[in-house]
Amino acid sequence: MRAAIGFDIYGTLVDPLEMNGNLRPMVGELADRFSELWREKQVEYAFRRGLMGRYEDFGVCTRQALRYAMRTLDVNLSEEDQERLMAGYQRLEAFPDVAPGLETLRAKGHQLAAFSNGAEATVRSLLAHAGVFPLLEMVVSVDDLKTFKPDPRVYAYLAERLGRSAGETWLVSSNPWDVIGAKAAGLRAAWVRRKPDAVFDPWGIEPDLIAGDLSELAGRLDSSTE
Description:
The chain is α/β, with parallel strands linked by helices. It has two domains: 4-14 and 93-225, HAD superfamily/HAD-like (Rossmann fold, 3-Layer(aba) Sandwich), CATH 3.40.50.1000; 16-88, DNA polymerase, domain 1 (Orthogonal Bundle). Helix content is 48%, strand content 12%. It has helices at 20-27, 31-52, 58-72, 79-88, 98-107, 120-130, 152-162, 176-184, 214-225, and strands spanning 4-7, 111-116, 138-141, 169-173, 188-192, 209-211. Strand 4, helix 8 and strand 5 (188-192) form a beta-alpha-beta unit. Helix 2 crosses helix 3 (58-72) and helix 5 (98-107) runs parallel beside helix 9 (214-225). The longest helix has 22 residues, at 31-52.
């Protein structure tokens, strides 16, 4: 059966922690911690804005999280360096398994979409730079609804855009909170466990499929859609 699949972007198709390479010339040995804190706060700020009903696009969350990391780690970056880092977020590379995995899924006839907290224009630019945009049929952005994952409405919107019922729609994400959000909204979901020691949140809501990367996912998804 042809599956309809929405792929999370950050952490699933591209690696936001890759920003430590951009940060190292600016902050030295703090680069890894800075990158992790930046990403952690980026996601937290999106959650909080969604709950508060005070929407600003993901770029605003990213910039505010950057400033938080600077203050927390007592790092003073010039406006020019901050702009370079924000631009760097648009030039993240795809994980090595992403293109082969998407190509395999596409060849099998599955319907593939990017599904992100990022604004559509931002996601298109990012995926084009990463070289994987041509492998996807569409971009579904929460920006259309002015809220963020894991709001149940955005998962329903993914299913609507893909022309399927919730139960016929898949989310693929490396973020456990995203997988749980999709499952809670009635979708099917695959967790891409990119780190062997990653722990799934013990909420009693489990993914339908666990794979180490997209190549493994592509080889196993068919049996899970039957």
